[in-house]
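To: structure subgroup
Subject: Chain for Friday's discussion

All,

I'm putting the inputs and outputs inline so they're searchable in the archive.
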Amino acid sequence: MDWYEKLNQYFPIEEMKSQEHMEMLLEEKGDVYYKDEGPYHVMMYAEFETFIFIDYVWVSTKSRGQGIGHQLIEKLKMKNKPIILEVEPVDYEDTDTAKRLHFYKREGFSHAQSIGYNRRSLATKEETPMEILFWSPNDESENVIYEQMKKMYEDIHTYKDEELYGESYQPVHEVLVFDQERDTNDIFDHLEEPEKA
């Protein structure tokens, strides 16, 4: 199985970029967009001057619990820039969403509660609300994270979208909202403790 298939089997269709999109990013934005791949993991991320955005992380179920995810995050933390990523809200039917959140909580990520993020999938035409998590070495404000997310959305998510998909994603101002009064709870507050195996 190649790296794209691994990601494609793990992530829901509405969150996936096409293989052509990712290969184009790796080729044409190779100074920003990277693939870190090993026998048991695939991580796609974008590194900008002032922040890092994790696009996808896949760790093989065979190797879970061996610290591979932790090592990948540690490698990025050593660059000493905020690290941003998107997660879907907890779905109690899908235990993976809770596992992912537990992982990022352990890694010291915070929930950007004032950032609303909702984009329509070109694949399914459905709105996909996501939450933003971030790790910050220098206590960057959520406003700074919001500005960085806007840059990432325009440079990575919507890169050549019309050429690749035959239509454009929504403009950034329709997708990302900064609102300190946003009515949302901290996504980590309601996580149940994982059961010990």
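Points worth raising on Friday:
Residues 36 and 166 are 29 Å apart (CA to CA).
The helical segments are 3-10, 19-28, 68-77, 95-106, 142-157, 161-165, 172-175.

D.
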